[in-house]
Amino acid sequence: MTIKDIAKEAGVSSAAVSRYFNGGSLGKDKQEIIRKVVEKYGYTPNQTAHSMRTGKSGQIGVIVPKIHSDSLSQVMHGIAGELQVNDYTLILGITEGDPECEVNYIKTMQLNRMEGIILMGTCMTPHLKNTIAQCDIPIVVMGQAFKGVSCIYYDDFNAMKDLATLMLKKRKNLAYIGAPESDPAVGIERKKGVLKAIANDGGNPDDLSYVISEGFEVSDGYNAMNKLLKNKKNKIDGVLCATDTMAIGAMQAMKEHNIKIPKDISIAAIGNSLAGKVVTPELTTVRLYFEECGKTAVQLLTSMIRSDDYPISQTKMGYEIIERRSI
Questions:
Q1: Which of 81, 116, 193, 316 counts the most CB atoms within 10 A of its CB?
Q2: Per-residue pLDDT averaged across 289-318, rounded?
Q3: Which uninterrupted H or E stretch holds 127?
Q4: Counting Cβ atoms within 10 Å, is residue 310 exposed (0-12), middle (13-18) or buried (19+)?
Q5: 3-state class of 238 per DSSP?
Q6: Is the peptide bond before 262 cis (omega within 30 degrees of 0)?
Q7: Rounded to an integer, what distance in angstroms lies between the CA atom of residue 107 and that of residue 88?
């Protein structure tokens, strides 16, 4: 069965059948006739031949630092669903946080005729900046506000500032467990948000006790909390964590020191993870719109693919504070 065969049985031209599969202009009557013939024979066009003929692969590359993350799974759900709606196939690359691996994936995806790339960014190295600038297919960066690149990112600064402001209504001696500052959004902007909230409350940001963890895992939050507790000079009554995952580790450390949450110390974080809903007490958190961010990234990328001349677009996503029992 070929396109010519489909056209002959449908009583239309081969060009009409091609437009049907390529999303071109076609009347509703012809679309319906062709659809019935296609479904009758279960016909699927040869994607390799289509790619060679049109220069389009129907594939989108998605580059992520890892996949074992509640937030990333939500982002991927949004991306995958929106790509399916737009008839694109998702090709996944996992970097394990290695910036050079990001560069290699971008180059490889270009060579393999991806139509566009979604990159969940961590840090902008000179090599990555140069690679993106030289890339001849559209790229959308998620999670970071990189200059000169189309981005979909979170309002990390204000999300943490508002969360800290909420805690400061009940607690005054705050500590902060931060993420590695190689990540501008999670590592730097969220810390700035805490400092701004303290200043707005009339406190001295320099008095903030904080530990910058080595990573983003439960164990990193656990180790950071133990460092804070070992310093007897710290009279902590509230802890803010860069992520929910780190907060879960911090809560474990507090419980091992017989610290009651929130009676002795309050705790809150950003992420609205499943784990934060099932721990005792439930974790006060900030919901970032991860799934919506994934969908928005695909919508932006597909609009760039369809346009010969697309301007740089940067979209900041909103957030929602969810107050539970840990404050």
A1: 193
A2: 93
A3: helix 126-134
A4: middle
A5: strand
A6: yes
A7: 20
Instruction: Give the per-residue pLDDT at 14.
Output: 81
Give 266-302 as a DSSP string: EEE-SS--HHHHHSSSPPBEEEE-HHHHHHHHHHHHH
CA separation for the pair 248, 195 (Å, rounded): 22
DSSP string of 141-208? EESS--TTS-EEEE-HHHHHHHHHHHHHTT-SSEEEEEPPTTSIIIIIIHHHHHHHHHHHTT--GGG-
- 135-190 per-position pLDDT tens digit: 989 999 999 999 999 999 999 999 999 999 999 999 999 999 999 999 999 999 99
Confidence label for 44 from pLDDT (cuts 50, 70 and 90):
confident
Classify residue 185 as exposed, middle or buried by CB count within 10 Å of its CB (0-12, 13-18, 19+): buried
pLDDT in tens, 308-319: 778 899 999 999
Integer Cα distance of 35 and 12 in angstroms: 12
8 A C-beta contact, residue 293 and residue 76: no
Q: How far is 177 from 191, CA to CA, in rounded Å?
A: 9
Question: Which tokens in the block code for residue 300?
Answer: 């932006």
In the block, tokens 């995952």 appear at: 245
| Residue whose entry in the numeric block shows the structure tokens 């679309």 | 31
| Structural domains of the chain sorted by starting position, each given as residue range(s) with its CATH number in brackets | 3-45 (1.10.260.40), 59-154+290-318 (3.40.50.2300), 156-287 (3.40.50.2300)
Phi and psi dihedrals of 243, rounded to 5?
-140, 155
Cα 282 to chain center, whole Å?
24
Contact 93, 67 (CB under 8 A): no
User: Looking at the chain, how many residues does it have?
Assistant: 327
At 134, phi and psi to the nearest 5? -90, -5
For the segment 10-26, the average pLDDT, to the nearest whole number, is 80
CB 122 within 8 A of CB 99: yes
pLDDT in tens, 59-112: 999 999 988 888 889 999 999 999 998 889 999 999 988 889 999 999 999 998
Which burial class, exposed, middle or buried, applies to 299 when counting CB atoms under 10 A from its CB (0-12, 13-18, 19+)? Answer: middle
